[in-house]
Design brief:
The chain is of the alpha/beta class and 298 residues long. It folds into 2 domains: 150 residues, Acetylglutamate kinase-like (Carbamate kinase); 87 residues, no CATH class. It contains 9 helices and 16 strands. The strands form 5 sheets. It has an 8-stranded mixed beta sheet, sandwiched between helices. A hairpin with a 5-residue loop joins β11 and β12. The chain is globular and about 65 Å long.
Length: 298
């Protein structure tokens, strides 16, 4: 059935407005951290996959880093393996790490790859262990509570931080018209596997690639001020001021620090966007308004 004239004009207008952005970002790399509601809702999952395929088709190189905390928690519960958290991080012993690798490197990663391929793209799934993509070391957690005279180092097992990202394998895939899908599992010099925060991995991948953009999908509308208004177009200095005055706190703080570190290390811009909105990634890249918070060096 043919479109009526008004609808056709609206479609044409949308496509035309996207052209300058396509021209601007063709050949550029955009790292997307995929998680939250966008990974759980079927409509959002399919819209995200289509967005990635469209980006690749117009010459942009999307790199996906995904999370999977809820899925890990579900399987641990089914296996009667208890979960403990320190400073919001899952204590990961060897048994838990086996589950993490199974869920992130297997189940979740391959679901995302399959969705992209079903939409006509070419995706390949990786973990940081493949070709030593993400070299890592154990993350040291300290407890500086008033009850102790000196900071106490807490061993949380196979929880790591990124030491180095080997970009050769990513560049090989993107140059071959493939979309890399990366599970946030790193490997130490001794071959030990580490569970790493997906935001952190996405930020370090973006830094290593000198990406045009780092996009972090969240379950909120973006960074908000004290009145609940979404803040957009922030410089790194303004973000630091918001951290210092307490506007940014709690669970949003690690995500903001990740975005901030990326732009300070050479990434063009960081974006914290609402993954509950269908096609959020395209809206953020190809429109003036976007659907979240943009952070630049200023």
């Amino acid at each position: 059935m043919a479109l009526d004239r008004e609808t056709a004009m609206q479609v044409a207008s949308v496509l035309s407005k996207g052209l300058p952005y396509i021209q601007r970002f063709t050949g550029k790399t955009i790292v997307v951290k995929y998680g939250g509601n966008a990974m759980e809702n079927e409509e959002l999952k399919n819209s995200f996959a289509r967005d990635m395929v469209l980006m690749k088709l117009v010459g942009i190189n999307p790199i996906i880093v995904h999370g999977g905390g809820p899925q890990i928690g579900d399987l641990l519960k089914r296996l009667n393996i208890s979960s403990h958290f320190v400073n919001g991080m899952r204590v990961t012993d060897s048994e838990t790490m086996d589950v993490v690798e199974m869920v992130l490197g297997g189940q979740v990663n391959k679901q995302i790859v399959s969705l992209i391929n079903q939409q006509g793209g070419r995706a390949i799934g990786l973990t940081g262990k493949d070709a030593n993509l993400i070299m890592a070391r154990q993350l040291k957690v300290t407890n500086a509570s008033p009850e102790v005279t000196r900071p106490e180092i807490i061993d949380i097992g196979h929880v790591g931080e990124v030491v180095k990202v080997n970009t050769d394998v990513i560049n090989m895939l993107t140059s071959g018209n493939v979309i890399p899908v990366i599970a946030p599992i790193g490997v130490g010099d001794d071959g030990r596997a580490y569970n790493i925060n997906a935001d952190s991995v996405a930020g370090k991948v973006a830094e290593a690639l000198k990406a045009e953009k780092l996009i972090l999908l969240t379950n909120v509308a973006g960074l908000q001020d004290a009145n609940g208004k979404v803040l957009t177009g922030l410089t790194a200095a303004q973000v630091n001021d918001l951290i210092n005055d307490g506007t940014i706190y709690g669970g949003m703080l690690p995500k903001i620090r990740c975005a901030l570190e990326a732009v300070e290390a050479g990434v063009g811009t960081s974006h914290i966007i609402d993954g509950r909105v269908a096609h959020a990634t395209l809206l953020e890249i190809f429109t003036d308004e976007g659907v979240g918070t943009l952070i630049s060096r200023g």
